[in-house]
């Protein structure tokens, strides 16, 4: 079984998303707009929220194919079905604001050779680079960078000796990696993924304003009575 252990945490990973951001009842040091914007995005898009969003966008299963495989994509037809596990990741360490997200999938590949068919099971981990940037007017953008072929982790299991021999003779793992990359490219172009990449904060806050305002504005006459003492 492929090792999908999470990477070592960084500073951004230390935040507990279940813990509320502390609010001081007394005045604190002034915060400039640049630092406010940086902290706001960092606290809103913490690691757990990003990985859970990736899981929600991808769903639980997928099916792809049939797609031509082999030289000229004429030798065989390949289809794949897969089940996603919970993704995991860590904050980028090169000064960029974003995350490296790893998406584990249990995949079944069916290879139709026209005169025969074979099935392979595989554990796949797809690394995605999620870069976060800002656009006007007050919009958060996720740029999702797909992996290269060599970055796709793939562990294939053959159910028969013939399948195992074909796996070695035909360079099957490279073909399956390219198959996975075509799947990733297809998924990233889907309308719901493109929509999820943009977070327009102004309309979102406008829609949520009644709930937000209720947290700090008076909601009844009793709220306007000054406490005794």
Question: Could you walk me through the main structural features you see in this protein, from its secondary elements to its overall organization?
Answer:
The protein has 6 helices and 8 strands. The chain has helices at residues 33-44, 47-58, 161-169, 172-188, 191-196, 201-213, and strands at 61-69, 76-84, 88-91, 98-112, 117-135, 139-145, 153-158, 198-200. β4 (98-112) and β5 (117-135) form a beta hairpin. The termini are far apart. Strands 1, 2, 3, 4, 5, 6, 7 and 8 form an 8-stranded antiparallel beta sheet that branches. The model has no long low-confidence stretch (mean pLDDT 80). 30% of the residues lie in helices and 31% in strands. It is α+β, with helices and mostly antiparallel strands and 229 residues long.
Topology:
Layout: H1 33-44, H2 47-58, E1 61-69, E2 76-84, E3 88-91, E4 98-112, E5 117-135, E6 139-145, E7 153-158, H3 161-169, H4 172-188, H5 191-196, E8 198-200, H6 201-213
Antiparallel strand pairs: 1-2, 2-4, 3-4, 4-5, 5-6, 5-7, 6-8
Write a brief structural summary.
The chain has 229 residues and is an alpha+beta fold. The chain has 6 helices and 8 strands; from the N terminus they run ααβββββββαααβα.
Helix-strand makeup class: alpha+beta
Number of strands: 8
User: Radius of gyration from the CA trace?
Assistant: 24 Å
Spell the H/E element sequence.
Answer: HHEEEEEEEHHHEH
Low-confidence spans: pLDDT under 50, at least 5 residues? none
Shape: elongated
> On the 0-100 scale, what is the average pLDDT?
80
- Count of alpha and pi helical runs: 6
């Amino acid at each position: 079984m492929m090792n999908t252990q999470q990477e070592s945490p960084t500073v951004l990973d230390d935040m507990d998303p279940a813990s509320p951001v502390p609010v001081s009842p007394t005045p604190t040091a002034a915060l400039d707009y640049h630092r406010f914007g940086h902290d706001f995005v960092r606290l809103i898009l913490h690691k757990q929220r990003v990985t859970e969003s990736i899981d929600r966008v991808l769903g639980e299963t997928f099916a792809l194919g049939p797609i031509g495989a082999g030289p000229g994509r004429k030798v065989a037809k390949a289809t794949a079905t897969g089940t996603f596990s919970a993704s995991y990741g860590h904050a980028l360490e090169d000064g960029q604001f974003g995350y490296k997200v790893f998406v584990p999938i249990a995949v079944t590949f069916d290879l139709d050779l026209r005169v025969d068919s074979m099935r392979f099971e595989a554990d796949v981990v797809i690394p995605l680079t999620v870069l976060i940037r800002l656009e006007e007017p007050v919009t958060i953008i996720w740029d999702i960078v797909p992996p290269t072929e060599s970055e796709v982790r793939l562990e294939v299991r053959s159910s028969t000796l013939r399948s195992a021999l074909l796996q070695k003779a035909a360079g099957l793992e490279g073909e399956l990696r390219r198959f996975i990359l075509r799947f990733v490219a297809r998924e990233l172009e889907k309308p719901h993924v493109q929509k999820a990449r943009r977070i327009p904060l102004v309309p979102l806050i406008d829609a949520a304003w009644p709930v937000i305002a209720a947290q700090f504005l008076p909601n009844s006459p009793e709220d306007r009575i000054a406490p005794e003492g």
